[in-house]
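Take a protein:
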Amino acid sequence: MKGKFKELFDLLKAAASAFGQDNAPRLAAAIAYYAISSIGPILFLVVTVAGIIFRGQDRQAVTNRLAGIVQNALGGSTDSEFSSNINQFLDQFVTSISNQFSNPGANTLAIFTGLVTLFLTSTGLFLQLQGALNALWDVKPKPGLLEMVRTRVIGFLMVIVFGALVVGYVAGNAYLSTLTKQIGDTIGQGANFVRVGSGLLAMLFFTPVFAATYKWLPAVNLKWRQVWIGGAITSVLFVLSQAAIGVYFARATPGSVYGAASTLFIVLLWIYFSSMVVFFGAEVTWVYSQRPGEKEEISATEGQGSNAKAAKLGLHPAYPTHPPHHPPRPLPPLRPPGLGPAIAQAALAVLALPSVAVLGLLRAVGLVRTRREPVRTLSTRQKARAQRLWNQRGIQAHLPEELPER
């Protein structure tokens, strides 16, 4: 058991060192900036899914449940002013969506417009997240349009699944909170049982989310065992960080000085802190994959950067050190030049004719001389010596009468 704790400590220590070397906080700030443009489409998806799950309830009930989703994501412990701003913002948002849903024709158009906007903005966020993870791993993605489309499709599907799971998580959390409170009240520890139950449910929910992120987004082929380890550690750190963020928001009230923009500032700050936790989990996954015996099937062009990074941290490189042999790419077939290149070549040939004529005239009158190499004649003794050396070495050759000077 002691060896396992030491192994975990060494893993986290190496991940923290890599986290600092890769400037992960700066990458987290960039992700927070790009995430702002995705809040609207993601909320549209959450409202749509919440309307399906909470069918039959009035708009205010849906707003209160969505406010609970946001507050739970922000740590579950926020000040009353922030809670009021969240409720007001979501109430206006749900009202506008409900007005669009009142007309069947507008309903279809609103859903289509929201899905297109969601695809463009949320997948752009996932492209930035993929770039940040590749920077942390020091790898280069495969170039090409197909790879970009693949990343956008994966990001779009992950946003849809994540949005649905968030609503399911909150519904399950409400049921679990009621159950654990009843059990806790029996023994006098209801509040503590609710916190523990919510934390365990969050870990169970976020582990596959982080594992799928580390498996499919970076430009490396990781094994599921490796990403499950990273996802589990990240989910534990994520739940603990959310509790710490909730306490910080409740006591420090960082958004109070921003007035009307306090809600946006707190959300931006939460995304920044959460992104740093996700990137630290990515570093944990990377360090774990560099352990001896953990082999990746990855091309050398992608792995050389990680080899150098592993060498700085004193880790065993898991990537091949010699690039694989690839057959040379065949040259493209020669094509006859078009009309434009043919005219240009003809013009150059015509312009070169006077130069050739002038050069011939100058050579004829003796103003320009052709350089000739001086000739050195070998003596009979030198020829005999050279011929004797050649015969001793079995070389069948004869020296010429004259050799050029060198």
The first helix runs from residue 2 to 21. The first strand starts at residue 375 and ends at 377.
